[in-house]
Amino acid sequence: MQEGGQISPHIDLETPHTHVHRLSRRLLEPAQDLLVLGIGLALFGLMGRTLIWLFREIVKGGNLDFRGIIAQVLFMLVMVEVVRLVVIYLQEHRVAVDFMVELGIVATLREVVLRGITELSWQQVVALTIFLLALGALLRFGDLRSTAPVEELPGIVLMRAILPRPELRGAG
Predict the structure, then answer these.
(1) Which terminus of the chain faces fewer neighbouring Cβ atoms within 10 Å, N or C?
(2) pLDDT score at 169
(3) 105-114 per-position pLDDT tens digit
């Protein structure tokens, strides 16, 4: 430090620990991306297998197991949400909490539909209601969504083409 509490402009950034941090970041981030990509591919494989099962059930004729078909369709919706979460992680290298809350809501509703509301005790219904209300309130009022301007969000090229130029936005 210099006199007056100011940091010296001549800080040595070539110390060995900074090289270790850069090297570890260069090695670990791509490795982590490969793992997440593997998870995404496994999810797509699982979704493909589920689609094949659904088509076989419909084509084979006879009595359809509607509860099983509904279970698989709802499972596919949950998987779509998980894949969306994986894609956002690969794009932004962060876990999107708002998508996780949405995933929790969809997965909970799937389980309620599969079990049937009549098979649940009143205590379970109250607990599920409070849980879903809490997740809904968190999603609605928790400020989980990004509030960055459109220009700062990644992948919003289409939105830029649709929205008027910044100097024209206030006019009108």
Answers:
(1) C
(2) 43
(3) 988 888 888 8
Closest CA to 135 of 163, 89, 100: 100
Rounded Cα gap, residues 24 and 84, in angstroms: 28
Q: Are 77 and 50 in contact (CB under 8 A)?
A: no
Phi, psi dihedrals of residue 65, rounded to the nearest 5°: -85, 90
Distances (CA, A) of 50 to 34, 44, 62, 64, 106: 24, 10, 20, 16, 18
CB contact at 8 A, 84 and 99: yes
Contact in structure between 76 and 48 (CB atoms under 8 Å): no
